[in-house]
Amino acid sequence: xxxxVTLACIALLTAVTAAASLPAPTDARQRSxxxxxxxxxxxxxAPRLAGELAMQTYSxxxxxxxxxxxxxxxxxxxxxxxxxxxxxSVIVGGFLxxxxxxxxxxxxxxxxxLRGITLSNQRTIRLxxxxxxxxxxxxxxxxxxxxxxxxxxxxxxxDHRKADVILLEGMAVWGTAAFFPGETGEPLxxxxxxxxxxxxxxxxxxxxxxxxxxxxxxxxxxHQWASFVEYLIxxxxxxxxxxxxxxxxxxxxxxxxxxxxxxRGLPELERAWRAWLERQEAERAGRAARxxxxxx
Length: 296
Known about the structure:
By secondary structure, the protein is of the alpha/beta class. 53% of the residues lie in helices and 8% in strands.
């Protein structure tokens, strides 16, 4: 499936590039009365946002606000963002049902500052970065927010808007792990969760970001939620994760019907997830000890 989607996008980009490079016909009878418009994704339209329309890609309208990323920086993100959508579509198992508007705005300030937010029912993403921000850092957050739009279009507005935040954000971090590699080459969320496990600093999965909105807390619990989602998929499969996602009754952490889907409530699943992490850590320590003994 991924190969088919990727080849289709390559063919589309090749056709556009080839058409743009053709020489102008010398015979007036060969000229088209009007140029062919660039191909764009159909379906639901994206809203018109304030600011400068810096770029349009097949799926996205990218806008620049004063104090945000430069027009040049935004245009560098266009094609990588389309590739992130291709990769995300393969992971989610569905495609965008329409275009998405992205607004690049000045950075927020304070301990609870956001880097990005997706208004999925409005088909709008807002990113908050200074003009000189590293390109890869912005791309990672953009991929994360685009994944939320894919979740919306796959699960449907009703189920997505009431999804348990553990599954909503955990799935998005897990699904975009390639954009956030750790020092060992593994996903960053795995490295951070292992470090918290060793230090005895794992947070409860029901940690509320309404009560503690600090960016540090958000980063920590997002990594844990991603690890928990990975555990659920590895242990029970993707179909049950989809069922749990759709069973949610609201955004608060723990609102999904875990017992109805998995036969175990969230507290029991959380204990099983921690035990799973501890087994992995013990196995890793055992391998390291064997390698060290062999080296001696």
